[in-house]
TrEMBL record:
Protein name: Purine nucleoside phosphorylase
Any Gene Ontology biological process: nucleoside metabolic process
GO-annotated cellular components: cytoplasm
PROSITE patterns assigned to the protein according to its UniProt record, in alphabetical order: PNP_MTAP_2
Pathway(s) it belongs to: Purine metabolism; purine nucleoside salvage
GO molecular function, one term: purine-nucleoside phosphorylase activity
Residue ranges annotated for the Nucleoside phosphorylase domain, each copy included: 27-259
Pfam assignment, any one: PNP_UDP_1
Length: 311
């Protein structure tokens, strides 16, 4: 057995000691992003496992992110779907290796999940996306993947997995359909849910205005610092994936004017221009919007799980 395989075996042994038989093979995996972990509280027969008590797991270090796996049932009592939710995730910008970032996803797949629903907080690149909109991701642009930092780079330790993974079908159409059916059943307004492309950046800095315009011009609708490694690992292991991004802030704002020369010339001519306002995003703002919309996200995820269970 390779070192990696024995690490997975000890993680799963440790989970077996704590999670009852009915929950140890969940059907759906869920990843909860910034401020979106309230889902953990609505699981029935919930069992919480701290990451730092699990062999093989790293420790999450971002404020606003918890660090637990939550096992439990979602949906109606008679048709409860066993799920495992990550309350808090690992990001490459924390200094974690890509292998650590995707480790929990691989564990979920090894436990037998067939579907993973990934949530995240993201910046809006598309000016039509209001803050608070949930975007069902249909595609991605991952500059790190294109420039030598693909999370799947490395010797193949499991020869049963594909070496050259296609990504044209990364975002499951049937699952995206279920999300829209779920939104309909919940009576969400049309504007609450959009579709779009996720641009992945490494962070931890937010984008400059020019970087925001660049990613928008490249076709991104939202931008974020997570998710794509998780999508790749899940797809590599044959799991169906859907991603829901909550727009927490606008990255590309309409230019007022950028020219300091114009501003100074206007001042000298005694006709000062209105001062341009810099839009400065903060992690607190991201968490606040996350908290405000956590309930809608929770309902949407829960209803989607229910539909997966009865599909
Ligand atoms: N950029 C990158 N990641 C983010 C942002 C952003 O503006 N907002 C929330 N996550």
């Amino acid at each position: 057995m390779s070192a990696q395989q024995s690490s997975f075996a000890s993680t799963i042994d440790s989970l077996r000691e704590r999670v009852p038989e009915g929950l140890i093979h969940p059907k759906v995996g869920i990843v909860c992003g910034s401020g979106l972990s309230t889902l953990g509280s609505t699981l029935r027969d919930r069992v919480l496992v701290d990451y730092d008590t699990l062999p093989g797991f790293a420790k999450s270090t971002v404020a606003g992110h918890k660090s637990q796996l939550a096992f439990g049932y979602l949906g109606p009592e008679d048709k409860g779907v066993p799920v495992v939710a990550m309350l808090g995730r690992f990001h490459p910008y924390e200094g974690h290796t890509m292998a650590s970032v995707v480790y929990p996803i691989r564990v979920m797949a090894k436990l037998g999940v067939t579907h993973i629903i990934i949530t995240n907080a993201a910046g809006g690149l598309n000016p039509n996306l209001a803050v608070g909109t949930i975007v069902v991701i249909q595609d991605h642009i991952a500059l790190p993947n294109l420039t030598g930092f693909n999370p799947l780079i490395g010797a193949q330790t499991d020869l049963s997995l594909p070496r050259f993974l296609p990504l044209s079908n990364a975002y499951s159409r049937p699952l995206r359909k279920l999300v829209f059916h779920a939104a309909h059943q919940l009576g969400l307004e049309k504007s609450a849910l959009a579709e779009g492309t996720y641009a992945w950046v490494s962070g931890p800095t937010y984008e400059t205005p020019a970087e925001g315009r660049f990613l928008r011009a490249a076709g991104g609708d939202v931008v974020g610092m997570s998710t794509i490694p998780e999508v790749l690992a899940a797809r590599e292991m044959g799991v169906e994936v859907t991603v829901l991004s909550l727009v927490t802030n606008a990255v590309v704002i309409p230019d007022t004017y950028n020219s300091i020369r114009e501003e100074v010339e206007a001042e000298l001519a005694g006709k000062p221009l209105p001062a341009a306002v810099d839009a400065i995003v903060s992690h607190e703002e991201v968490l606040t919007i996350g908290k405000q919309k956590a309930e809608v996200m929770r309902q949407l995820v829960e209803k989607t799980v229910e539909l997966i269970g009865s599909a």
